[in-house]
Amino acid sequence: MPSQVNSACEVACAEDLTYPPPPSLQGDAHVPDFNTYKDLYRKSIQNPQEFWMDVASEFYWKTPPSGKLFDYNFDLTKGKIFVEFMKGAKTNVCYNVLDRNVMEKNLGDKTAFFWEGNAPTDSSVISYGHLLKEVCKFANILRKLGVKKGDRVAIYLPMIPELVYAMLACARIGAIHSIVFAGFSSESLCERILDSQCAALITADGVFRGEKLINLKQIADEAMERCKEKAQLVVKNCIVVKHLNGRLNNQHKAKLQTAWNPDVDSWLDELMVEASEECEPEWMDAEDPLFILYTSGSTGKPKGVVHTVAGYLLYTALTFKYVFDYHDDDVYWSTADIGWITGHSYITYGPLANGATSVMFEGIPTYPHVGRFWEIIEKYKVTTFYTAPTAIRLLMKYGDQAIQKYDLNSLKILGTVGEPINSEAWLWYYNVIGNRRCPIVDTFWQTETGGHVLTPLPAATPLKPGSATFPFFGVVPAVLNEQGVELEGEAEGYLVFKQPWPSIMRTLYGNHDRYENTYFNKFPGFYVAGDGCRRDKDGYIWITGRIDDMLNVSGHLLSTAEVESALTEHPAVAEAAVVSRPHQVKGECIYCFVILKDGKKFTELITQELKKQVREKIGPIATPDFIQNAPGLPKTRSGKIMRRVLRQIARNEKDLGDVSTLADPNIVEVLFSQRCEAAA
Ligand code: WTA
Question: Rounded to the nearest whole angstrom, what is the distance from the C-alpha of residue 392 to the centroid of ligand 1?
């Protein structure tokens, strides 16, 4: 493959360049050109009833949808916010993604997942038939342990097949899964278990990430212990996957002592031996909850985003089919972790609903070498590759040589998600990985939106590097100014949505007020995404980033408040303020200002302790890059921290804008003179 280094000109003018869809893709594409996209889009808005009934007709319904499909209120001034879609229809998501494929479509022998372990020698192949059996057995185990429809089940597992078995087993019996990314700390896990009062916890003995062994069961035990101490919540059942069997050397074995409480803990493999492979699904209302997934909130307390059965199934299935232009012989790979929404929607539900074959990867991009992603693409002849800008920037650093060894000719479509992609990374992905043949679908969406809401379609949309382009079917975006006035044409402002699509979140678990306040209060009548955007002269939408107190570190959202509260729990810290600062690989990184208590001295030891503290309280993804000792913070006269000013200090940008409300202007000079140049 020839190396295609981005030319300086290409990078400089990237925003004005347009990349048309490749004709080779247009022949048998679901949406073969831009006019077809526009026609279908119009239909989805003007006649949603017919549009979504067509989609629904591909699925199995115990009680088919009938009557009015959508019922909703987006306007707080008119009453409670709610969204209902196909209410009264009955179905089961697990049945639709498994039984329907195996029984009705005869896909029992088709590969659902090529599982690729952390070590390149470790892999397995899971067919739809096998997946169905394992899920039924797991579902029977949960039922036997007393887990019922509506109960919440916490899942704290790495990227192993059992994670998919566990989530689909919950879906089968109507239990609500709450998956917690296995990189979160015991405290974060505990907080999530408590918030939704989980009846059971599913975890594993441990996992390797690269060379590093992580003792998940120990973290799970600590979390369960905390649940007891903090709120007298006793998790009655902890099911443990024996994942490390045969993967440990003697040194590891000595380190890994799995504590065992026979009243609570049970090994999954022992339960599976006796479980039946037949399991009648629980027939669920379209509007019953399917799962909860926590996402960071600006108060620091995570928000339990609730998705419901039918809307989520239909929307993830349809976006998967169109956005990745899915065809039966494709091999699709999303490098996301199922612990995040991308993995829920585009590793489990969307691909399986289409009967697709996917790669599921346990490892990291740089182990055992920096060409691991490209090696996997070659190994499985991946056609559709979906990853994050942070991974692209990381791998770009290692140069094109790590890529040239591998045959990437199987690739047809590339995708990105998680944060805005800078044009340099976009062009490298397009030129070097896609060899100028593969469109890049830059998909904008959120945990809250359930599926892609702004995205190109690969054979239809002319691309502009860094733009998420246009809305998906059924989605109506708008740009508002600070006064809430809708802006037409070329404009920059708040990204909002004017009406629901099937997979928009329905509530925040146990806190509907917070749902209304966070997303619907600022501009009555609109769902407010929390991102800024710009619409260019051609109508393309460009996401400009978060406009609230959120940090986007390597595509993971964190709130400034949760990092601040982790810092202030250190005995030497009086006050802390956290902002983001651009980072070459992570996109944004964390810059902290800390004020120490009287008499405490700022030392290297304190810096290290604070970093450790944040890691332990939230997880390694939240580790601060910079910690500055601050004698004071820029505040308004009413005492509000002026984060805008701190952000400029962290970035060393002298243009502070309007600082007339600043109580003590001197502090800004002091902070500038003492800023951290190098990462802590
Ligand atoms: C950001 C991830 C620009 C955005 C699916 C959003 C993006 C937040 C893009 C949601 C994109 C996601 N371009 N920004 N293509 N995709 N974002 O909930 O700020 O983890 O609000 O969902 O990520 O993050 P979340």
Answer: 16
